[in-house]
Prior knowledge:
By secondary structure, this protein is an alpha/beta fold. The protein has helices spanning 6-14, 104-114, 119-126, 130-144, 190-205, 217-226, 236-254, 270-281, 289-301, 303-320, 327-339, 344-355, 357-366, 371-386, 393-404; strands spanning 19-27, 30-37, 42-43, 49-50, 55-66, 69-82, 87-90, 155-164, 168-175, 181-186, 210-213, 231-234. It folds into 3 domains: 1-96, no CATH class; 147-234 and 370-404, Ribonuclease H-like superfamily/Ribonuclease H (Nucleotidyltransferase, domain 5, 2-Layer Sandwich); 236-366. A hairpin with a 5-residue loop joins β3 and β4.
Amino acid sequence: MTHVRVTTAFNRVLGLPGTRVVGVRFDDVGLVLQVRRSAKLHECPCGVRTAARYDLSTRRWRHLDFGACQVWVEAPIARIACTRCDRVRTEVVPWARPAARHTRMFEDMVAWLAQRMDKTAVATLMRCAWRSVDQVVRRVVTDHLADSRLDMLIRIGVDEISYRRGHKYLTLVVDHDTGDVVWAAKGRDRAALGRFFAQLGPDRVAHLEAVSMDLGGPYRFETEQQAPHAQIAIDPFHVIQMANRALDSVFTHARVQMPTSPDSQGRPTRRTWRATRYALRAGAERLDPAHHALLAGLSHGHADVYQAWQLKEQLRDLYHQVPPAQAGAYLDDWIDRAAHSELRPMINLARTIATHRDKILNAVVLNLSNSRVEGTNSKIRLIQRRGYGHHDAESLIDMVYLCCSGIRIPLPTQT
Length: 415
């Protein structure tokens, strides 16, 4: 029978790098493992190493539980007078991140769970405070989110998302090639996007070739100033959304008389109203014969509404039917027909599209849209619902980076 010392057994069980167990005891908090660093020199968070120390104290770090027993790692930790930082700082230890009171294994487990669960459930499962989960997520994101994610960005999408009532927004920048969020900041103005370009720096900005966005002015103006060489592509969804609004305006002012049922007292039935609105708004390829019959009725009694619908569909064809080489001539012809349609909403739409003609064509030629960004927005809304909201923008930004920026957290149990 082989006899193994208790400290040796716990060394094998813990598997903490650069660490050896020198004592084991139970107290009122659970199992306390006394450890020592294998290295002889003290290391500052900035990387400086020294044998001298300013003072010494004992600290505990929460570790992964052993069954139903909470486990704590206890060790002496030194403060050192760092010559590079020019101040007294606490040394780093191999089993924990700087300023953390949990081991790396514990924090990695929490972060892995936070990618898949709400923070309250994580706190309950890991037997820690909700605030601790929040702080762990922030440290893990800081540890994994390298500045190199901004290297070689070529095509990016910019959009905003509301995170709280009262016009509270985040600005998101997504890499079109990877689908990862590379930047998130509070606000939706030029300053928010300006901070992204500032961190990107002139050399990396020079690599940008295309930026997709909606028609909002702040992002467009800032991009034109910071990256004038990059092609701006207006998101097709927002262009068609404008066309639908113009069509709705024509439909509303036309006072269309729709079929009624005998028991509706001369008013159109709700089903008929909804079917007509759907036939006008939906793409032609989605309509069934009944919807086409409704449109045929409009073509006879309300030619202006039918004309507006045709113009909307013809604008949709720009993105689905027209070859990129012919897109410029097609769009110019569409603008001319809409401008001479004698329909005020369509005339206004034609003016807006003429103003942004080149940027709209960039989306067609480059086959670029904000669909990746919108998909990311859907994930963020799920994160918000899963967490029942977040107490501040910084907390949500940390979760966005943790779940949407390509961070991969290996489980401590994975080998």
